[in-house]
Design a protein that fits this description.
Strands 21, 22, 25, 27, 28 and 30 form a six-stranded mixed beta sheet that branches. Strand 6 and strand 7 form a beta hairpin. The two termini are about 15 Å apart. By secondary structure, this protein is mostly beta strands. It is built from one helix and 31 strands. The protein folds into two domains: about 300 residues, Tachylectin-2, Chain A, CATH 2.115.10.20; about 130 residues, Jelly Rolls. The structure holds beta-L-arabinofuranose (FUB). Beta-L-arabinofuranose (FUB) binds next to strand 2 and strand 10.
Length: about 450
């Protein structure tokens, strides 16, 4: 009965757009890319691009980015994300070519209680050189989730993509964007017009594409961060300076190229509750087409001299997972070298997620930061596949595989979900380890506790 009630709550939450999932990638109901995260009113708001599959019957490249609108998402804990729906769409902006599907990387900032959403798109207007090209527009709202009213014209004197806005401590706002080079200029108080001639930042890598600038300040250092193709695909790099318009000096790499070869990366930095996070993207939901991307988050740390420690992408991501939520073990924190792998559940529907496959005895996967709260849970629900039956061990907080409970899983020809009594669970935040305590292969989709 309790399970049925939980399922009903889950279905209701999904219907109103609340995704009760953690881990990387963080958004599960659509492709998302180019994430700009901002903290407004104590919550994190995520403004990504919205990749879609190229619609049939349009005069569009099949192998390219395709984006018609933007959604905004919010979270209080970086784990549960609410999709607030579409905020700006290509067919509702006067200056945008509504057949171009070119709504690329956006940004959003707050000033004096108004929210300014900046987005690039192909213009329907021909410029002085007879070209349409990318312009950058602004849409304005009273709340972070909108409704947003787009301006009728793009920002004058700006041609390019990937807008980013920084407001310095003295109140001066700056716009950054890219088009081959990375540009910056002051913005007027109205946030919709330039207040200086654009400058092209010097001393950045001369060879290889640079795009996606994201500027932030910490302890008097200004960090100009950007994706750059040093080798074959993009990696995240940064330069430092003591002024929002430079000069900047190259300082290093924030994140190496994606191991799976995703051609782009695009990012933002955010400090939430005294921890820095890097939002970035890979193409987890679309392993064979890297223009359908998905947003991820990992923690980020600075060295004492202000330089940035390189971020290694993880599957576990950030945030606490409630013990009662589905814990996707395949988003592990650590995994044994031998006998444990992950694979997609359904290669015809990648959004169905992944499974953990144990093929050898004592192979294991560890999932950190599961919040058991103050409850003394006694049951574990597990979705598994074990053709010949199997035995799974559950351990807490250490890697020596001190199994607190062994669970016998009946044989079956397909996926099965069982709820079994478990011993040795503790209250508070725990790292859990599931291992193969038998000598038969076992696949696990998720576990949860009650
Ligand atoms: O999403 C389209 C483009 O790909 C962005 O504008 C770039 O930064 C790259 O991520």
């Amino acid at each position: 009965m309790k399970i049925r009630v939980l399922f009903a709550i889950y279905t209701l939450l999904s219907a109103i757009g609340l995704s009760v999932f953690a881990q990387n990638p963080i958004i599960h109901n659509q492709y998302t890319a180019d994430p700009t995260a901002r903290v407004f009113n104590g919550k994190v708001y995520l403004y990504p691009s919205h990749d879609i599959k190229t619609p049939e019957g349009k005069n569009l490249r099949k192998d390219w980015f395709c984006m018609a609108d933007y959604h905004v998402f919010s979270s209080e804990n970086l784990t549960d994300w609410t999709d607030h729906g579409v905020i700006v769409s290509q067919n509702k902006v006067k200056w945008v070519d509504s057949t171009s599907y070119s709504m690329w990387a956006p940004d959003c900032v707050e000033r004096n209680g108004k929210y300014y959403f900046y987005f690039p798109a192909n213009s329907n207007q021909v410029d002085a050189n007879g070209r349409k090209g990318f312009g950058i527009g602004v849409a304005i709202a009273d709340k972070p989730e909108g409704p947003y009213i787009p301006q009728d014209e793009p920002i004058k004197n700006v041609k390019g993509i990937d807008p980013n806005v920084f407001i310095d401590k003295d109140g001066q706002a700056y716009l950054y964007w890219s088009q081959g080079n990375i540009y910056g200029a002051k913005l007027k108080e109205n946030m919709t017009e330039l207040d200086s001639e654009p400058v092209i930042f010097q001393n950045l890598p001369a060879k290889g594409l640079k795009e996606g600038p994201f500027l932030f300040e910490r302890n008097g250092n200004y960090y100009l961060t950007f994706p750059h193709v040093e080798n074959k695909i993009e990696r995240l790099e940064y330069a430092m300076g003591d002024n929002p318009l430079g000069p900047f000096k190259m300082a290093g790499v924030v994140m190496d190229e994606a191991p799976n070869g995703c051609w782009t990366n695009h990012h933002s930095f955010v400090n939430f509750k005294n921890q820095w996070y890097l939002f970035y993207h890979q193409n987890d939901w679309s392993p064979k087409f890297d223009k359908n991307r998905s947003v991820r988050i990992d923690s980020l740390f600075f060295n004492t001299d202000g330089t940035i420690q390189k971020v290694k992408p993880t599957l576990r991501g950030v945030g606490m997972t409630k013990a009662t939520d589905k814990i996707q073990l395949d988003r592990y924190s650590l995994i044994s070298d031998k006998g444990a792998t992950i694979a997609y559940n359904d290669t015809l529907n990648y959004f169905d997620g992944w499974k953990t496959i144990f093929t050898e005895i004592n192979s294991w996967a560890q999932y950190n930061s599961v919040d058991f709260g103050a409850e003394n849970y006694k049951w574990m629900e597990i979705k598994y596949f074990a053709k010949n039956g199997g035995i799974v061990g559950l351990s807490l907080n250490q890697l020596q595989l001190k199994v607190v409970t062994k669970i016998k899983l009946p044989a079956g020809t397909g996926w099965r979900t069982v709820r079994v009594k478990v011993k040795g669970l503790k209250t508070g935040v725990q790292n859990i380890i599931l291992s193969n305590a038998g000598n038969k292969a076992v696949e696990i989709d998720w576990v949860r506790f009650d």
